[in-house]
Amino acid sequence: MSYRVIPEYLKERIRRFEDYKWRETKGTEEEALLRSLPKDLRLETKRYLYLDMLKRVPWLNIMDDGWLLEAVCDRVKSVFYSANSFIVREGHPVEEMLIVTRGKLKSTTGSNEMVGGNNCCDLQAGDICGELLFNGSRLPTSTRTVMTQTEVEGFILLPDDIKFIASHLNVFQRQKLQRTFRLYSQQWRSWAAFFIQAAWRKHCKRKLSKTRDNENIPQGTQLNLASTLYVSRFVSKALQNRRKDTADCSSSPDMSPPVPHKPADLEFAKAEA
Questions:
Q1: Which of 14, 164, 165, 250 is deepest in the core (most CB within 10 A)?
Q2: Taking a C-beta distance cutoff of 8 angstroms, is the pair 199, 234 a contact?
Q3: What residues contact 97, with CB distance under 8 A and at least 6 apart?
Q4: Are residues 203 and 70 in the same domain?
Q5: Alpha-carbon dihedral of residues 35, 37, 39, 43, nearest 10 degrees?
Q6: Contact 67, 90 (CB under 8 A)
Q7: What is the pLDDT of residue 234?
Q8: Quick check: 127 and 183 in contact, CB under 8 A?
Q9: What does the alpha-carbon distance between residue 109 and residue 86 come to, in Å, rounded to a whole number?
Q10: Assign residue 170 a region: left if phi > 0, alpha if psi is -120 to 50, beta otherwise?
Q11: Which range of residues forms the domain containing residue 199?
Q12: What is the pTM of this model?
């Protein structure tokens, strides 16, 4: 491509990708070779090459039916990405779902949905990118930018493949799939962390308020000296502990970051029901 007028950095990225692809495939076009095989031979070869790796992907464990997992195995396509390659950009349509089998990626968002929180997270083997395709027939818009940090290998599933999988999941499997995505989704993890922190701050403020109410017990009269000393020591120690554990909570309660909106669950396309 030396005769083409393209920037040097782009030429270097192309060279790195071709070098990496050659190291991994030794020049063999794996997908083209597999497509040229008869169906039974292609399925058997793909099972041998891919099935063990796919079984290590958490959300694929819900497919108790062997034939469905094998159908997924037949539909996936292996892909390679060189370092510093964009998988998807925020605001762009999600055109495929990537299942990572090797390498590291960085997922970031420029939106304010995680104000005060961590807008960046790492993806690695077993993670996925593009699960929004389960939400319906139209291509969804990506809420994050995903970029490779190292050389990455994985499998991709296209929208038609996702529709096929969703249409063959029963109600129990769909519910299990939703729970699995909640567990491994960075959006759900971030929201859960914010929710727990907000609940803890609320608990701290309630406890501090209760302690202060106890401190303001009327000094009236029926308490003997021993009881008064006991209450005084208890309140003093409680206040000491509360000031130590919830200093930021009591000093600037209004500065706590707001809890972001709860992420939406996967909503399977109605046409598949």
A1: 165
A2: no
A3: 128, 129, 130, 131, 133, 156, 157, 162
A4: no
A5: -80
A6: no
A7: 64
A8: no
A9: 13
A10: beta
A11: 195-255
A12: 0.63
